[in-house]
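Quick check before the chapter quiz. The format below is the same one you will see on the exam, so make sure you can read both the input and the output lines.
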Amino acid sequence: MRKPKEYAKVCWCWEDVKTLRPDWSGQRCETFLQKNSKHIAEAMVSTGWDALESLLPETSRQSRR
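Here is the expected output.
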């Protein structure tokens, strides 16, 4: 069976965190991402579902639950 294509991937790196916390070291930024990766991913998935629902035409929407 063929794997479906994936779209709208998002990745974060320590430099992204550093833009918000310029006084933090790169290592501290990395540690933050490691400790919070699950929470960040959950928030991105939730926001992605909201975006899909708002962008789909009304007649095509179905509940995801």
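If your answer matched, good. Residues 23 and 64 are 42 Å apart (CA to CA).
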